[in-house]
Amino acid sequence: MEHITLLLAIVVVTALVFDFTNGFHDTANAMATTISTGALKPKTAVAMSAVLNLVGAFLSVEVAKTISGGIINEEGIRTEVIFAALVGAILWNLLTWLLGLPSSSSHALFGGLIGAAVMSAGWSAVNGSTIVTKVLIPAVAAPLVAGLAAMAATKLTYKIKANPEAKATAKGYRAGQIASAGLVSLAHGTNDAQKTMGIITLALVTQGVVAPGSNPPLWVIVSAGVAIALGTYLGGWRIIRTMGKGLTDLQPQQGFAAQTSAATVILASSHLGFSLSTTQSCSGAVMGAGLGRKGGVVRWSTATRMFVAWGLTLPAAGLVGAGAEFLTKQGPWGIAATAFVLVGGSAVIWVLSRREPVDHNNVNGDDLGGPDSGTPGVVTTAIAAVAPPPAGSVAAVADDGLKTTIHAPGPNDPAAPPAPAAAV
């Protein structure tokens, strides 16, 4: 700790800020289905997830070692590169949170790190084989494996108990959901908290504080675990809404199958040192569970937007990281400008989020509308307002978009016009 310079301190704080955003960005991974099915109240769910994320941070350091000594070559990398990488990752995390898209915080960090390293030292600074084997292949395989496992588990669950007593079965599966959600939270701590440990350790290596290949110091493990736990407790309600209600409608049986499948994939990857996206694993499991129930559907419009965000995460965060590194290379004023971009961009995103706030009170509601919410949009409302009414009635569209019907007055109605005189 005595060797930490001002720049290194800034990088450590920025890394913990990223860890915090990772926490509230990924709360949905563990708790979205539990909240949407009513197994736990929103605040209780995020509190439980926060505690287990903290515990999980102490269980392994394999992923941290992959980050600190695998993706990029440690030799010749400046501390400013780490700072630039974190700027790219944080801004992408906040933007996708604003849009309610469950993108990968892990890939945002990798993209920022790769972009900044390439801008600093060229393509030779990147270990291509490690990126392919421990980042890209798991990125494709994890959601597929989790989705197929969740689909099979859901089908098996409904087949075993084809005509269950609704109340008793739902209660049992809700208890199972709580246990599996806790397992996902624990797995998330073992995987995602380590990424921040790895990035801080990498920064310490660049300053000569620790030797290359070292495990994260204890204070790094503790601070990373606390930061991700605090972010988790804050709750990323926008993404919880998308994962719990936007992708599909889940019953307790499906929620249990999805969370158990995702937790198994994440824990296995953490043991192997694969730094996969917990978001993609959990999203794939939710979609698989949605398809596994007879009559279940996946809202593909939401899923498509999510897939696009997945594909853009690495290159977008990489471009921002490269731009930030270009600034930091200019000297102290460039580092200050990069910090200003980070703070200013974060403030703008937060202000925009206040226009349509989502919190624990409305995370399961339909009051915000959207393409999959069932609330009529502008075009639908406008068409309804000018469409001719059906025979015998007058149609009106109220301000809130709800359609009402006013029946035409009958012959005995005082408001009815006088009947024409009969011909003599």
TrEMBL record:
Q: Where is the composition biased (Pro residues)?
A: 411-424
User: Where do transmembrane segments lie in this chain?
Assistant: 43-61, 81-101, 107-126, 135-154, 218-240, 307-327, 333-352
Q: Superkingdom of this entry's organism?
A: Bacteria
According to its UniProt record, where is this protein located? Membrane
- For region Disordered, the annotated ranges are 404-424
Give a yes or no for keyword Transport in this entry.
yes
Transmembrane helix keyword on record: yes
Query: Which InterPro entries has this protein been placed in?
Result: Phos_transporter (IPR001204)
Q: What is this protein called?
A: Phosphate transporter
Q: Name one Pfam family in it.
A: PHO4
The alphabetical list of record keywords is:
Membrane, Phosphate transport, Transmembrane, Transmembrane helix, Transport
Membership in a protein family: Belongs to the inorganic phosphate transporter (PiT) (TC 2.A.20) family.
Q: How does it sit in the membrane?
A: Multi-pass membrane protein
User: Whose protein is this, by species?
Assistant: Streptomyces omiyaensis
Give the chief site where it resides: membrane
